[in-house]
Amino acid sequence: MTTSTSPTSSSSPLAERLDGVRAGIADAARAAGRRPEELTTIVVTKFHPASLVRELAALGVRDVGENRHQEAQAKAAELSDLGLRWHFVGQLQSKKARQVRAYADVIHSIDRMSLVEALRSDEAEVDCFVQLNLTSDPGRGGVSDRDLEPLVERVLETPGLRLLGVMAVAPLDEDARAAFARVRSASDRVVAIEPRADKISAGMSQDYAAAIAEGATHLRIGTAITGNRPPHG
Question: Mind listing the pLDDT tens digit for each residue in 53-82?
Fold first, then answer.
């Protein structure tokens, strides 16, 4: 979904939340001296039913994000008639890589060499982001800052992958604007290697304005649009 300031035609709670986020994104973009049209909003529908995704599509959403393979695979199959662009935004096991390639248009979470190799393909390219770990915890998703360039270079030389840029999640214990400034710096390093890989996937429901201020191009927004997630097993 590319952001739009035009109101949706429905007055449902979902439509109202979507309109509210669209307006917030437009305001944040203008405050940063940017155009709202530069931004792509990915609505993350984790744990929500396929019926909600169908409602979102009726409201003009075209970019949908999921972070669990089994759920994403099922929704993509059920909603194949809608022409949606599916973004896989969660941690990806190497053994599931080829299955995710089959339905995902964009993979946001490439964080290690073994995953790059698992995604290697002589078939059509899949768009991707290299995920940067902004914490000192190696258990968190993402490549360490010192290993960013080698991973980027491996992605660029691997058939079947087209690097869009860098992705990150702001740590809860750090000011979001400061965290995203580090992502912008990492993006500059990626662009120095591949000028076309200038996209930044950053910003969620609680911090998208800070991400926009620091150059984010792709926002991953869930509950601010979808509402609270339903109970799940």
Answer: 999 999 999 999 999 999 999 999 999 999
| Diameter of the chain measured on Cα atoms | 49
pTM here?
0.93
Helix (H, G, I), strand (E, B) or coil at 58: helix
Q: What's the pLDDT at 7?
A: 45
CB neighbour class for 68 (10 Å; exposed up to 12, middle 13-18, buried from 19) = middle
The pLDDT value given to residue 81: 97
Count of the separate structural domains present in the chain: 1
Please indicate, yes or no, if residue 188 is contained in any of the structural domains: yes
In a domain, 232, yes or no: no
Give the number of other CB atoms < 10 A from CB of residue 232: 9
Does a structural domain hold residue 6?
Answer: no
Task: Name residue 88's beta-bridge partners.
Answer: 66, 107
| Contact partners, residue 141, CB within 8 Å, separation at least 6 | 91, 109, 111, 131, 133, 169
Domain of 70: which CATH number? 3.20.20.10
In the three-class reduction of DSSP (H, G, I as helix; E, B as strand; rest coil), residue 130 is classed as strand
DSSP one-letter code for 62: -
